């Protein structure tokens, strides 16, 4: 079956964590790919096209990652989990990609953002604290996007949307790397390892607790 999966072999992130991406296509094409793979999609009928695309891509990622039928559920807070399985998973969506991260032993959070998203420069006061502004220059787009995705990934790992973006999550100093950008952050007394990789025009940042 010809697919748009960007990484049939999952990429390794931070040891035992794995990340896989799927490029979004039109909803009918993604639904057809699901049906060819034997993945149920009848429940997606009637949803808006955007939701159909994202949900179908999530199911295709799960199918390729675990090579067996699995059922995706969500908690009351909206966090994803696999029914009857203790695997920790996280998803992120952009207009072009769906990204999935998973780890058997550690909680994970993943976030993706297009590398040319200039809007993030205009809202730096909403997510950077005073110390972070010392090492992230006002015109450094890459560092802004990495910081944004890092904090979003940590929020997903904690499953706490009420966290204060500026003072509730504190990033340690980092410098964008052409390969992988590795750094740490602190949130609610927990230290998180972070790894950011540039893939297909997107910054993908994974967070796992130490």
- Rg: 17 Å
Q: What kind of oligomer do you see?
A: single chain
The description of the largest β-sheet is: 5 strands, antiparallel
Shape estimate: globular
Q: What's the order of the H and E elements?
A: EEHHEEEEEHHEEEE
Spatial arrangement of strands, main beta sheet: 7-11-10-9-8
Count of helical segments?
A: 4
Q: What percent of residues are in strands?
A: 25-35%
Query: What is the arithmetic mean of pLDDT?
Result: 91
Helix content: 10-25%
Number of strands: 11
What gap, in angstroms, lies between the N and C termini?
Answer: 39 Å
Q: Which regions have little confidence, pLDDT < 50, spanning 5+ residues?
A: none
Structural class category:
alpha+beta
Describe the protein's architecture and organization.
With 210 residues, the chain is an alpha+beta fold. 25% of the residues lie in helices and 30% in strands. Strand 1 and strand 2 form a beta hairpin. It is globular and about 50 Å long. The relative contact order is 0.15.
Q: Which helices and strands occur, and which strands form pairs?
A:
Blueprint: E1 11-13, E2 17-23, H1 27-36, H2 49-66, E3 72-74, E4 80-82, E5 88-93, E6 97-103, E7 109-114, H3 130-135, H4 141-158, E8 169-171, E9 180-187, E10 190-199, E11 202-209
Antiparallel strand pairs: 1-2, 2-6, 3-4, 5-6, 7-11, 8-9, 9-10, 10-11
Helix pairs in contact: 1-2
């Amino acid at each position: 079956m010809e697919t748009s999966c960007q990484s049939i072999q999952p990429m390794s992130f931070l040891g035992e964590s794995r990340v896989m991406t799927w490029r979004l296509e039109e909803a009918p094409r993604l639904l057809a790919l699901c049906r060819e793979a034997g993945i149920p999609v009848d429940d997606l009928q009637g949803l808006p096209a955007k939701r159909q695309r994202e949900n179908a891509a999530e199911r295709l990622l799960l199918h390729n990652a675990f090579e067996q039928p699995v059922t995706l559920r969500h908690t009351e807070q909206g966090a994803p989990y696999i029914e009857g399985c203790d695997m920790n998973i996280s998803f992120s969506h952009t207009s072009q990609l769906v990204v999935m991260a998973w780890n058997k032993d550690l909680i994970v959070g993943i976030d993706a953002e297009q590398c040319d998203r200039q809007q993030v420069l205009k809202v730096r006061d909403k997510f950077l604290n005073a110390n972070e502004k010392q090492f992230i220059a006002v015109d450094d787009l890459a560092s802004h996007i990495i910081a944004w995705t890092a904090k979003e990934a940590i929020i997903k790992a904690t499953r706490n949307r009420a966290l204060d973006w500026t003072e509730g999550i504190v990033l340690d100093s980092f410098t964008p790397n052409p390969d992988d950008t590795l750094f740490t952050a602190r949130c609610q007394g927990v230290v998180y390892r972070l790894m950011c990789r540039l893939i297909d025009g997107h910054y993908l940042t994974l967070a796992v607790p130490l």
